[in-house]
Amino acid sequence: KAKNPAQPEFHQAVTEVLHTLIPVIEKNPKYMKHKILERITEPERVIMFRVTWEDDNGELHVNRGYRIEFNGAIGPYKGGLRFHPTVTLGVLKFLGFEQIFKNALTGIPMGGAKGGSDFDPHGKSDSEVRRFCENFMMELYRHIGPNTDVPAGDIGVGGREIGYLFGAYRKIVDRWEGVLTGKGLNWGGSLIRPEATGYGATYYLIEMLKKFKGKKDLKGYNVAISGSGNVAQFASKKVTEFGGKVVTLSDSKGAMYLPDGINDDIWNAVYETKAIKHGRLQEVAEKFDLPWFPGKKAWEVAAKEAGEVHIAFPSATQNEINAEDAKTLINAGLIAVVEGANMPSTLDAINLYFENDVLFGPAKAANAGGVAVSGLEMSQNAQFTYWSAEEVDRKLHDIMVNIFNTGVKYAEKYDKPTNLLLGSNIGGFVKVADSMIDQGIY
Ligand code: NDP
């Protein structure tokens, strides 16, 4: 903490991972001998830069850009870019650190990275977003490349932003290459990439229920989803396909209750409002006359309005389920949490899940479908080819099953058979740590 002051999210992520690694460290002295913990918590490279851009009125603004190239032992650095006013070095270090283990779990050779800016795309015109993206890329381009570092989207960085970033990169380097993922389908993107995180996390949830509850679908379950962005949209679609009832969606302004679950009309309106128009979820609630709760979280609304909540599917941001929220959900009959967002549960909330036998699908395993399909997008670009939606979806499903099985394998090996947090952390760690040892001292 003294070495990395004012980075509470990074400390939290490291604490969570290191705590679960104790048994594997005790059993394998080589990790201490090679100082793997000291090395793996120190980014290989941190890039910070100024981004100056001009708004529609000709006024100049200064934001800070970042790229954390955390660990490249098993493949090119890979991880999203986040544009949100809460972005700090500590937030991106937590995300980059998590990404190392997540990427290792996918089985695709990708190192861990993260980046972004404290730029807020809310309320900005398309031209302002484009000018910001161009100026951001003016510095970032020299640090990335299809075999070096391949960024993707995250909060505030969707198809529009990836388009502007890719256009700027191509113009600067005068090459078409798969330097970003999440690209448009006409220009190198992969089918199923937009769906991948939400679909993948639902596949993971089904594996949890199959193994630990003997259930193959979500029939009879109320599912509280938070957020209404990329992850939440496709999670709500897949959950509904599996027979679950989605009882909430939310955004940074409040939560919407869905007494009859989500149907195609509501889903299309959410997609149109959030992904295309970059608007407010409240507009959807008003359009369909659905109850809207300003300033409330999905968990409280779900518990109060639906009465019973069986599954929590956080898909907005970090630390969105604290101990109080976890208690609310547990009192409403919670049986499983599947993390679509990164680190959405505080450490106290996670302890409460374990104390109350709630099944827990941790972010770095459950939401790895997005980066996995980004890896498949890189493969398609490298081969100058496109795969069908069915093929990518099948590969995504297989990868999610493998990630789940890796977690189970290590959880059982270390005598905590239902602890997928421990199993997934160890599964990701040993692969990266052993690779670092193989590659010498650096
Ligand atoms: P989007 O920007 O598409 O959506 C984010 C959603 O979360 C929006 O509804 C947003 O509301 C809400 N939100 C963001 N910050 C806050 C906040 N501080 N408080 C309350 N609500 C908030 O992002 P994604 O769906 O892509 O990402 C969501 C989460 O999933 C993040 O944790 C991300 O790291 C993680 N993730 C995403 C992957 C992907 O493939 N997209 C892959 C793996 C993880 P509003 O619109 O009002 O801002």
If you had to describe this structure to a student in words, what would you say it looks like?
The model has no long low-confidence stretch (mean pLDDT 98). With 442 residues, the chain is α/β, with parallel strands linked by helices. It has 17 helices and 12 strands. The chain is 49% helix and 15% strand. The protein has helices at 8-27, 30-33, 36-40, 89-106, 126-140, 159-173, 196-213, 230-241, 264-276, 281-288, 298-306, 323-331, 347-355, 363-366, 369-382, 389-413, 420-438, and strands at 45-54, 60-71, 77-83, 111-117, 149-152, 222-225, 245-251, 254-257, 292-294, 311-313, 336-338, 359-361. A hairpin with a 5-residue loop joins strand 1 and strand 2. The strands form 2 sheets. The protein has a 7-stranded mixed β-sheet with strand order 9-8-7-6-10-11-12, sandwiched between helices. Strands 1-2-4-3-5 form a 5-stranded mixed β-sheet. Helix 8 (230-241) runs antiparallel to helix 9. The chain starts with 7 loop residues before the first helix and ends with a helix. Among the domains are: 43-180, Leucine Dehydrogenase, chain A, domain 1 (Rossmann fold), CATH 3.40.50.10860; 196-357, Rossmann fold (3-Layer(aba) Sandwich), CATH 3.40.50. The structure holds NADPH dihydro-nicotinamide-adenine-dinucleotide phosphate. Substrate binds at residues 78, 99, 102, 153, 374. Keywords: NAD, Nucleotide-binding, Oxidoreductase. Residues 190-440 form the Glutamate/phenylalanine/leucine/valine/L-tryptophan dehydrogenase C-terminal domain. This is Glutamate dehydrogenase. Belongs to the Glu/Leu/Phe/Val dehydrogenases family.
